[in-house]
Amino acid sequence: MSDRIAESGVQGLARQGLTGQDRGSGTALDGKGPLFDQIKRAVAGQILRGRWQAGERLPNEEELSSLYGVSRQTVHKAIALLAREGFLVRRRRAGTFVATGRRDRFALPIEDIGDVVARDGRVYEFRIRERKSLRNGEGIRWPDLPDGAPILTLECLHFSDGMPIQHEWRLVNLDAVPEVADEPFDSMAPSRWLVDRVPWSSAEHTVRAVNATAEMAALLGVEPGTACLSIRRQTMHLSRPITLVHFLSVGDRFSLSGASITDSATELNM
């Protein structure tokens, strides 16, 4: 283990030139985009430049939050993304380490539909069609939760310039996110609310092409049998299910893109 890691706190890190004041080292935030993305690029830059070697343990989240002057939750999100992309390996009780080997993978972004619509220069709206609380196994079964676990179900319709583009049916684990029970979602859609407030460490996606049923066609304003994109996503935090959601999007009104994660620094916009 490196001597500088053995030193506790930011003071020890500063002696090694690892603070944001060391502008030449790549630790300074670049000011582009959300803070968690900036920290992600800064930490990845340290790894790619050899500051932190393969197999070496990183400073803990508290040290990194002091190092970069941001909240621990922001650091946690950045580190979780780097772990998901293969730069880091997280070991319970031992800490977070630089990965010794990485494979290319295709990553789907967890992106709010409102951001997608706004990026296209259109007006975004949403409508909550139904919400209710129940217990797992009462008409709905979430395989990764025990029977009887409290669940919030949400049905939502998303619009672009007044046209429906996506139907959302979501389950939220109330044991993991109890505060969601009191959220009215008057001005913020469930997807945005969860992304902004609830940490997650992994996500699983299932994507397939389907034809709209008569019921879904009526909701989305298309003909029955219209080609649609079906996305099933489950997010977890430290092996604990957070939310399970199914999106159904009209094929010619919605697109999905991802990225092949590689060791190239250009993939990190550096």
Percent range of helical residues: 25-40%
Give the neighbour order of strands across the main sheet. Answer: 4-5-6-9-8-7
Work out the strand percent: 25-35%
Structural class: alpha+beta
Strand count: 10
How large, in whole angstroms, is the Cα Rg? 21 Å
Mean pLDDT: 81
Order of helices and strands: HHHHHEEEHEEEHEHEEE
By DSSP (H or I, 4+ residues per run), the number of helices equals 8
Distance between the termini: 28 Å
| Main beta sheet strand tally, sense and closure | 6 strands, antiparallel
**What is the CATH superfamily classification of the largest domain?**
Chorismate lyase-like
Domain count: the total is: 2
Residue ranges: pLDDT <50 for 5 or more in a row? 1-26, 262-270
CATH class of the largest domain: Alpha Beta
| CATH topology (fold) name of the largest domain | Chorismate lyase
CATH architecture of the largest domain: 3-Layer(aba) Sandwich
User: What shape does the CA trace take?
Assistant: globular
Notable features of this structure?
disordered N terminus; globular; single chain; 270 residues; Arc Repressor Mutant, subunit A; Chorismate lyase; disordered C terminus; 30% strand; 8 helices; 2 domains; 10 strands; 6-stranded antiparallel β-sheet; two-stranded antiparallel ribbon; alpha+beta
Task: Characterize the structure shown.
- The chain has 2 domains: 3-102, Arc Repressor Mutant, subunit A (Orthogonal Bundle); 109-254, Chorismate lyase-like (Chorismate lyase, 3-Layer(aba) Sandwich).
- 25% of the residues lie in helices and 30% in strands.
- The protein contains 8 helices and 10 strands.
- Strands 4-5-6-9-8-7 form a 6-stranded antiparallel β-sheet, sandwiched between helices.
- A hairpin with a 2-residue loop joins strand 8 and strand 9 (240-250).
- The radius of gyration is 21 Å and the shape is globular.
- The model is unreliable at 1-26 and 262-270 (pLDDT under 50).
